[in-house]
Structure formats: C-alpha cells, structure tokens
C-alpha cells in the first residue's frame, strides 16, 4: 500500500506538496520556519485521515536536509522523515524532464513526494540518535572545522614566512607539527623578523622554549636554533622586513586563537564522549582515543536500528568495495559515495592501530604482501575493525584482541589446528 508523502524546500518558506498513491497532488502549502508553520503542516497531514486510511504519523516526509529546527520539531512530533541526497534528487529530476532544464520549489516538492511514492522502499528513514549523541556530533563538526581553519591559517603563516624568513620554517621542519608547535609560535612571537632572531641570546631562546612547554633536550634545541638564526641568509630591505614581520604577527595572532579554541573543543569533546553510555565500548577498541572515538560515535550514532548488519555499516563508512558488473566484465572499485568524514576517520583509526594492536598489524602486513597498496590495506583493516565494532555495539561486549584477530596456533600431533571464534 502506498502512503502519501510530503516535501518542503528551504528558500522563502518551505513548499509542501502531498500526493496520493497515484501521484496526484492532494494538498499544497507554504509554511514558515515558526511554531505556527509546523502546526499548520501537522494539521494538513492530520486532515488526510478523512480521505484515506492512514494516520498522520504514517505519512513520510521527504527532505533534502537532516538538520534544522523544522527537522527537530517534526521528529519531536513523531513524524517519519526520509532525507534525500541533493545529487540523487537531481538525477531524478533529469529522469522526469530529460529534455528541459528547469527547477522550481513547487516542482521539487512534487518530485520528492513522488520519489517516496515510487521508490520509498529504497530509502531509509532518518536515524533517531539520542540528544547526547546529537550534542556530541555538533561538537565533532565544530572540531573538524576548527582543525581545517587551523591548517589554513598555518599555511598562510608558512607562506608569509617563506617570503622573508625561511629559517623559521627550517627550524621545525623535522619536528611533528612544524610551525604549529607551541614553541615555534612562541619563538616567532619573540622574534618576528630574521634580524630580531639573530639578536636572540641563548638564555632567551631557552626560556622561551621552556615556557612553551618543552621539557626535553632544551639545551640541544637552543644551540641548534641559535646557530640557525645567526647563519648567513638572504634578507629583505629593513623596511620591507619590518612590515612583513608585522603582517606575520597578525596571522600568528589568528593562529594562536584558533589553537586555543581547538584545545578547548578537544577537552570538551573528550569530556562529552566519556559521558556517553557507548564510550566504554569505543574506548576498548585499539587506536580509538577520545577524538577518534568521539568522531566514530558522532557519525555512526547510537540508534540501535540504524545498521542491522556490519556490511551496511561498512558500506556507509566507505569500507565496503563497490562492484560494477556488465555482461562478462566485472570491476571491483573503492566506494566513493559514503560518509566522507567517517571514511577519513576510519583511515586515521586503522593507521593508529598498527602500533597498538598486533593482530591489526599482522592483518595489514598480510594485505600488503597480497599486493594491496597502503591505502587499500588500511581500508580493508578499517572494514575489519568496523565489523568488530558493530559486534561489540550489538552485544554490549568490549573489544577482545584474540576474538578480533585470532592467531594461528601450532598444529597438534593429529595435524589439526584449533578453531578460533571471530565476531
């Protein structure tokens, strides 16, 4: 039995269209982003019960977003929502009008409603995470964007230094973080130009490094930096060099503020992640620290009905391969249509397990020996880890290394090997 379905757009109010089982529009409306608009939509859907056998809460609504106040209000009212990807909607639009390139909010409302009418079984209802998981995802997204802004600002800083102060780049080129390091930013604040850096004495350099948090090999780094800053190098004219130093300090101030915000978000992220009921399971996985664990939890969610199988979770995360078959040809490729943030997190997660899980390292080495490249081997390892994670979340068990990556034991006198269970 086909259900009526509704859709709204996002510009100049929300366009609503309701269609019956035959695809004929039975109701239209334009609602605002207000409590009155939500009530108007719910009353419109409730009025359908007079002419059909479906209650309001059985009418699915197709939407092109999964966030916003309207989405929250309709979820609170118990209305089933089906988020549709805009790229997929564009393909449907081309199928409906292959010879004309036109688009309107009214037409899109009818289009999305008819997508659910004809192919509703192919689309999933919106997940129902708990408020705690939703709040964690908000912080995770903020943390993602702050990290991105931090990298962009660091690139601006390095670009500015390259024009007049290359020694500041070479000073930390072989250390993790390079110019993002706290000691690098602190020393640039003290010596924003090559001339100021050349005048620095060893005690000032040592004190700056110590105040920035360095506790090991302070004397060695002090001597190295003192010699580097005094070495002969090309210089800009004094007036130009001073102006470039002031420009660099302005960029450095922005970078310092972004780093401070990132540190605060990381601390808050770890705190909120630890308070979630699933945190113990995620934390038991090798390589899943507070940041990676929070990112995994935020993207996967805590809706127990979202992923019925581990294969569905792997496909959503981009860890399951995609097969293209036509006639006698078949090609297995990497899945690119997936949750990109989860896929990137999975790459980092799998890489982190190589030094924390002997089984994961052995699995990665076997895939490399079989001919997989580094990224492909990590992707396969990520899929294996997701299978383990899905099992743990479904059963409530903590991660066990021997169950996830059983080791081959020596054969006994009969020539048989003992079996090992894999979740």
Characterization of the model:
It is a single chain. The protein is 56% helix and 7% strand. The chain is mainly alpha-helical. The chain has a three-stranded parallel β-sheet with strand order 1-4-5, sandwiched between helices. β4, α2 and β5 (81-83) form a beta-alpha-beta unit. The longest helix is centred in the middle third of the chain and has 38 residues, at 238-275. It is globular and about 85 Å long. The relative contact order is 0.07.
Radius of gyration: 28 Å
The count of strands amounts to 7
Mean pLDDT: 88
How many domains, as an integer?
A: 3
Helix fraction by DSSP (H/I, runs of at least 4): 55-70%
**Cα-to-Cα separation, first versus last residue:** 38 Å
Structural class: mainly alpha
- Dominant shape: globular
Which strand order spans the largest sheet, edge to edge or round the barrel? 1-4-5
Helix run count: 18
| Weakly predicted, low-confidence segments | 410-423
Proportion of beta-strand residues: 5-15%
Keywords:
423 residues, mainly alpha, Nucleotidyltransferase, domain 5, three-stranded parallel β-sheet, two-stranded antiparallel ribbon, 18 helices, 56% helix, globular
Map the helices and strands:
Layout (H helix, E strand, L loop, with lengths): L5 E2 L6 E6 L5 E7 L3 H12 L14 E3 L5 H8 L4 E3 L2 H11 L8 H15 L11 H34 L1 H5 L11 H9 L3 H5 L3 H10 L6 H13 L7 H38 L3 H6 L5 H11 L9 H7 L5 E5 L2 E5 L6 H14 L4 H12 L4 H22 L5 H4 L19
Helix pairs in contact: 3-4, 5-11, 5-13, 7-9, 9-10, 11-13, 13-15, 14-17, 15-17, 16-17
């Amino acid at each position: 039995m086909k259900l009526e379905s509704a859709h709204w757009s996002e510009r100049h109010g929300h366009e609503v269209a309701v269609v019956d089982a035959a695809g004929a529009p039975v109701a239209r409306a334009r609602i605002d982003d207000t409590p009155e608009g939500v009530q108007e939509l719910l009353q419109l859907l409730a009025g359908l019960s007079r002419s059909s056998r479906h209650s309001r809460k059985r009418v699915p609504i197709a939407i092109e977003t999964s966030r916003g106040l309207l989405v929250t209000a309709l979820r609170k009212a118990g209305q089933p929502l089906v988020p549709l990807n805009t790229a997929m909607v564009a393909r449907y639009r081309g199928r409906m009008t292959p010879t004309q390139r036109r688009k309107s909010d009214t037409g899109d409302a009818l289009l999305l409603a008819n997508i659910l009418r004809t192919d509703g079984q192919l689309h999933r209802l919106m997940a129902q995470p708990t408020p705690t998981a939703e709040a964690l995802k908000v912080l995770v997204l903020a943390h993602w964007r702050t990290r991105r802004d931090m990298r962009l600002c660091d690139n601006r800083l390095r670009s500015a230094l390259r024009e007049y102060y290359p020694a500041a780049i070479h000073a930390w080129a072989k250390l993790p973080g390079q110019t993002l390091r706290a000691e690098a930013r602190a020393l640039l604040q003290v010596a924003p130009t090559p001339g100021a850096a050349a005048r620095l004495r060893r005690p000032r350099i040592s004190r700056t490094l110590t105040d920035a948090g360095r506790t090991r090999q302070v004397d060695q780094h002090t001597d190295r930096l003192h010699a580097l800053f005094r070495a002969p190098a090309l210089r800009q004219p004094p007036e130009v060099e001073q102006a470039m130093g002031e420009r660099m300090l302005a960029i450095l101030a922005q970078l310092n503020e972004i780093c401070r915000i990132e540190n605060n978000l990381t601390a808050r992220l770890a705190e909120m992640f630890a308070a979630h009921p699933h945190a113990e399971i995620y934390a038991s996985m090798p390589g899943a620290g507070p940041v990676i664990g929070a990112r995994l939890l935020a993207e996967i969610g805590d809706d127990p009905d979202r992923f019925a199988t581990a294969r569905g979770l792997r496909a959503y995360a981009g860890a399951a391969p995609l097969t293209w078959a036509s006639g006698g040809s078949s090609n297995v490729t990497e899945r690119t249509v997936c949750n990109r943030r989860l896929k990137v997190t999975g790459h980092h997660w799998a890489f982190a397990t190589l030094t924390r899980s002997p089984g994961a390292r052995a699995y990665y080495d076997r895939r490399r020996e079989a001919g997989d490249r580094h990224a492909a081997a990590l992707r396969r390892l990520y899929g294996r880890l997701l299978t383990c994670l899905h099992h743990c979340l479904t059963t409530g068990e903590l991660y066990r290394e021997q169950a996830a990556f059983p080791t081959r034991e020596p054969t006994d006198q009969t020539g048989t090997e003992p079996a090992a269970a894999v979740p």
